[in-house]
Design a protein that fits this description.
The structure is a single chain. By secondary structure, the protein is of the alpha+beta class. It has 2 domains: 6-83, Winged helix-like DNA-binding domain superfamily/Winged helix DNA-binding domain (Arc Repressor Mutant, subunit A, Orthogonal Bundle); 92-164, Lrp/AsnC effector binding domain/regulation of amino acid metabolism (RAM) domain (Alpha-Beta Plaits), CATH 3.30.70.920. It has helices spanning 33-44, 50-57, 61-73, 106-114, 140-151, and strands spanning 6-12, 77-83, 92-100, 119-124, 131-137, 157-164. The strands form 2 sheets. The protein has a 4-stranded antiparallel beta sheet. Strands 1-2 form a two-stranded antiparallel ribbon. The radius of gyration is 20 Å and the shape is elongated. Mean pLDDT is 79; it is low at 1-22 and 174-180.
Length: 180
C-alpha cells in the first residue's frame, strides 16, 4: 500500500460553548486579526515554521509561537494530522444516507458506526436522512461487507441509500468550525 499523504489539520474552536470570549485575552482570541491570519496560514500548512509565518505577516516567529501557544492553551486552536483517504488510493468509498428506525436516536447509530475504522465521517443532518456517513475501504468488497455487517444486519437502521463516488471535483479535507 502506498504511504499515506498526511496533512496537518487546524481547527479553530471558537464555537466551543465552554470557551467564552469574555474570559479570553486578545492574544488567544480567534477574533483577533493577527490570530486569524496565523490560523489561515496554519490551515494551508500546519507544519509551517513560525519564523516563515511571521515573515509573511510582518511579525517575529516568537510572536507567532506565543500566539499559537496562547490559542492552544485557551482551547481555541488545535493542530492534528489527518490522512487524506483519496491520497492513499483506497479502492472504494461511499457516502451513506441513513434513516434510523422509529424510536432510535441518530446519536446512537452514529456512535455505533463511528467505532468502525472504515467510517471517516458521520454527520447528523436534517431532511430525508438522519445521518450522512462516509466510509473508505481498501477493496471494493469492503463496502459490501460493511453494509452487510454494520448496516443491513442491525434493526436500528430503517433505510440506507448508498452513494458511491464517480469522480472527485474538490476534496477540502480540513474540517472547519467557524474559522475566523
Amino acid at each position: 500500500m502506498p504511504r499515506p499523504d498526511v496533512s496537518a489539520q487546524v481547527q479553530s474552536t471558537a464555537d466551543n460553548e465552554d470557551v467564552r470570549t469574555d474570559r479570553v485575552s486578545s492574544l488567544s482570541s480567534p477574533f483577533d486579526d493577527l490570530n486569524r491570519q496565523i490560523v489561515r496560514l496554519l490551515q494551508e500548512d500546519g507544519r509551517a515554521p513560525y519564523d516563515a509565518i511571521g515573515l509573511k505577516l510582518g511579525v517575529s516567529g516568537g510572536t507567532v509561537r506565543h500566539r499559537v501557544a496562547r490559542m492552544r492553551e485557551a482551547g481555541m486552536l488545535r493542530i492534528v494530522a489527518v490522512v487524506d483517504p483519496v491520497a492513499v488510493d483506497y479502492e472504494a468509498d461511499a457516502m451513506l444516507g441513513i434513516r434510523t428506525a422509529p424510536g432510535v436516536a441518530p446519536a446512537t447509530v452514529a456512535e455505533r458506526l463511528g467505532l468502525h475504522p472504515a467510517v471517516v465521517y458521520v454527520m447528523w443532518v436534517s431532511g430525508r436522512f438522519n445521518l450522512l456517513v462516509e466510509i473508505v475501504c481498501e477493496e471494493e468488497s469492503g463496502v459490501a461487507a460493511f453494509l452487510s455487517e454494520h448496516v443491513h444486519s442491525d434493526p436500528d437502521i430503517a433505510h440506507v441509500e448508498v452513494m458511491t463516488r464517480i469522480g472527485m471535483f474538490k476534496n477540502q479535507f480540513l474540517l472547519k468550525r467557524h474559522l475566523p
